[in-house]
Amino acid sequence: MNQRGQAFSVFELMIAAIVAVAILFVLLPIITNITTPTGDAPTTIGNALSTVSAGTSTDTAPFEVKQNQVINSSLFSEIDPCSVYFDATAFGGKQIEAEADFAIPTGDMECTSRFKNASSAPVKAKAIVFCDTSPNALQSTLDYAGYDSTKLTVLPADFWGTEDPGYSKVCVVILKRA
Asked: Phi/psi class of residue 21: alpha, beta or left (left: φ > 0; alpha: ψ in -120 to 50)?
């Protein structure tokens, strides 16, 4: 056997290893940015609503919203359905649609906020939950955090500034892409 031929094979193997490592360094940041949903939407949002206190916010873990799934504020028993509003403005596109039947709580009103996955496939999402003691206080909390409360499309203009004593806690769930 020729010694030069054997040395060339080792050199080829070394070049292949270097190329493989280079490809790995290119793919590694892409692979680590892939988030997998850790739970379903009602459970994840419900946990966030129960843990966030007035004047604070929390980010949820990524979750999956199933095809045509509708999430209503009435699903969360720990908070008045008139006090939870979903906003999908930051989500972008038409995949997630949010709407609300607005009413200041008086004890006998039926009101709800809801969002729906309007796409033909499951959607990965996450949320930022802001809560405070009244709409006026919530507006200040949102503005301080850098969110323009006037751009939250789900809430009517007369919601802001309300100091109705019927609220014990009012929350906005801002949906985002995961």
From this structure: alpha
Task: Identify each DSSP E strand in the chain by its residue range.
Answer: 39-40, 56-59, 63-65, 70-72, 84-87, 96-101, 112-117, 123-132, 170-177
**16 vs 10: CA distance, rounded Å:** 10
Judged against a pLDDT cut of 50, whether residue 104 lies above it is answered with no
Burial code of 98-129, b = ≥16 C-beta within 10 A, e = fewer? bebebeebeeeeebbbbbbbbeeeebebbbbb
Asked if 149 and 156 touch (Cβ cutoff 8 Å), the reply is no
The pTM (predicted TM-score) of the whole model is 0.69
